[in-house]
Amino acid sequence: MPPLIEAHDLSKKYGKHIALDRVNFAVETGRIVGLIGPNGAGKTSALRAILGLTPYEGRLRVLDREPFGDRAALMRDACFIADVAVLPAWLRVDQAIDFVAGIHPRFRRDRAQALLSKTQITGKRRMRELSKGMKTQVHLALTMAIDAKLLVLDEPTLGLDILARRSFFDALVNDYMDETRTILITTHQVEEVENLLTDVIFIDRGRIVLDSSLDEIATRYAAVAVGDDNLAVARAERPFFERRTLGKTVLYFERPDVRQLANLGELLTPSVSDLFVAKLSGGAA
Amino acid sequence: MKDYAWLVRREFWENRAIWLVPSLIGVALTLAALFGNVQIPSLSLPDNRIFGGVVLFGFGVTFFVVMDIYATWYLLDCLYADRKDRSVLFWKSLPISDTATVLAKLFTGLIAIPLVYFIAADIATLLMAFIVSVRAHSTLGGSLWQPDLWLQLQALWLYLIVTSAIWYLPFAGYLLVVSAWAKRAVTLWSIVPPLAAYLLERWFFGTQWVGTALQDRAFGYLPRAFHDKSDQSAWVTTVIQHDTIKTPSSIWQLLDPLGFFSSPATWAGIVVGIAFIIGAIQLRLRRTEI
Questions:
Q1: Residues A35, A203: contact at Cβ < 8 Å?
Q2: Where would you tag: which of A130, A162, B162, B168 has the fewest CB atoms within 10 A of its CB?
Q3: How does residue B96 score in pLDDT terms, banded at 50, 70 and 90?
Q4: How far is CA A228 from the centre of its chain?
Q5: DSSP track, A194-248
Q6: Contact check, Cβ <8 Å, A103/B286
Q7: Angle, to 10 degrees, between the axis of helix B2-14 and the axis of helix A93-103?
């Protein structure tokens, strides 16, 4: 089976600015992939290309379609939540349901209504009357009621408080995700999503810095916290990043000799956010 | 087809003014008929008939003038509004092509909105005619109840809706292009390019092609879609209380569909209009946000 998303030498330029510079990646069915990078790294450009919202250079196949020329057909099998504020202010909740039910062949009205019945939101409310968190609930209910193969989320929790964020991701993982679905999610807040991802792609200044499954990360990377006495020895092992913390230095290694490191200090498993910081400031260290 | 019905319905949800404004005009005119000072001049029978026609026509014109202003604003705003509130990202997450979206908005502006005003005008006119004829306490109120006159006006309005939609297609297409393109100030952007083209042409070439073309498009509709007053037999002159008015003896002699559809300007307009609409679709494909 070919990958759900396949990009070869994907580039996106805005005038002289290169937002994406010949990137290659693939996303397989059943994964939850985090596309992670700082602001302006090219995340949104990559997503826009995948969703058929913008022309691009290079080769890109999504669900075996060319997204820019074939967006309407693609959206029968894929859906996306761009961010929380895109449902128009004048739209009523029941109108939103009617409209999507009217035009989307894979929308299940009963499912959307069941999801909304768990909330305080009634059908006659207009989006302008709802809080950001409630709007997100409406959008998520609409989206989760679509039987799609690919769900794309672009900074979905931007501007939401901690409770709304938590319930957003809980709903996603518990009520939506199964082995037939694939989720691609962009964020610049790594901590928030690292527990639900199966794969991460780090992107910085238009290039991919890391593309790996989380299982792979656990075996491939290690960190060690050493005291000053062992620092010189540890540095000789060629860490790609180090940082000072509480009187010790934490050094990050790719494919290290773990037993050797264990002799030098306390062995740590780097989290995705640690790796993100390490990889993205790594070049300078 | 089902998708188009939903798309047009969505335009009615978003722009409630589409039916609110004509309803308000209708209510205002009905109230005027109810409580206003109804003075129907005492006229002989043929003049009476013409008076009725003029009143009914004036009623319809009130609706159509407001409709033209509203539809122009609608076409200029519709694609821009989606980008301004970023809801374009929601609409594009649904399996609807940008072509369908743009065509649905064009249809709303050129056909659906005029039809709503037409229906509102009919209902208001019926109410007004009923009220006036009851209040007037005379046969004179009957000047407003003339089935053949009524039928003629219906034909006139429908002919007007269809032919003006075709004639003004380039303007509508142009407004959609501006609406899909401009980052702000859509009204200004709709005026500046044609004005600049007109001025630059005058300064650099001393010619007035642009100005003439625009002027003909703006004011050339009536002479092409209707017979003019040169055909004396088709027009009747009436004096109503010192005012001389010239009215067509029959609407049927006024409409000129053959002349309209055989005019090269009509077809040139269609070609230019389609080019603008294709441009608006291409812009809608590429421009997501402001």
A1: yes
A2: A162
A3: very high
A4: 37
A5: TTT-SEEEEEETTEEEEEEEHHHHHHHEEEEEE-HHHHHHHHHT--SEEEEETTE
A6: no
A7: 160
Using DSSP's 3-state secondary structure scheme, residue A44 falls into helix
Which residues does chain A have within 8 Å of residue B101's beta carbon, measured at their own beta carbons? Answer: none
Amino acid at B104: A
Q: List Cβ neighbours of A164 (8 Å cut-off, separation of 6 or more).
A: A132, A133, A136, A137, A157
CA geometry: angle B264, B265, B268, nearest 5 deg: 85
Q: Would you list the DSSP string of B134-203?
A: HHH-SGGGGGG--HHHHHHHHHHHHHHHHHHHHHTHHHHHHHHHHHHH-SS-HHHHHHHHHHHHHHHHHH
Entry field: residues in chain A = 285
Q: What crossing angle do the helices spanning B98-107 and B2-14 adopt, rounded to 10°?
A: 60
Measured distance CA(B6)–CA(B228) in Å, rounded = 41
| ipTM given for this complex | 0.88
Distance CA A69, CA A46 (A): 16
Q: What six digits make up the tokens of A222?
A: 């290690």
CA distance A8 to A20: 12
- DSSP single-letter state for residue A130: S
Asked if B95 lies within 8 A of A105 by C-beta distance, the reply is yes
In the numeric block, the tokens 């292009």 are attached to: B177
Binning pLDDT at 50, 70 and 90, where does residue A284 land? very low
Torsion of CA A37, A39, A41, A45, to 10 degrees: 110
Probe site for chain B from A103, A140, A147 (most B CB atoms < 10 A):
A103
pTM, whole model, 2 decimals?
0.89
pLDDT tens per residue, range A37-75:
888 888 889 999 999 999 999 999 999 999 998 999 999
Size of interface A-B (CB pairs under 8 A): 76
Count CA atoms closer than 13 A to A2's CA, side-chain side: 10
Residue indicated by tokens 């790609």 = A240
Q: Is the pLDDT of residue A84 over 70?
A: no
Angstroms from A1 CA to nearest CA on chain B: 25
**Cβ distance B109 to B71 under 8 Å?**
yes
CA dihedral A86, A89, A91, A93 (to 10 degrees): 80
Report whether pLDDT(B240) > 70. no
pLDDT of residue B182: 92
Interatomic CA distance for residues A208 and A128, integer angstroms? 39
Separation between Cα atoms, residue A177 and residue A158, nearest integer Å: 21
Q: Which residues of B touch A55 (CB under 8 A)?
A: 286
Q: Give the one of A54, A87, A100 whose C-beta lies nearest to B87's C-beta.
A: A87
Dihedrals phi, psi of A227, to nearest 5 degrees: -80, 170
B140-159 residue pLDDT tens: 556 667 777 888 888 989 99
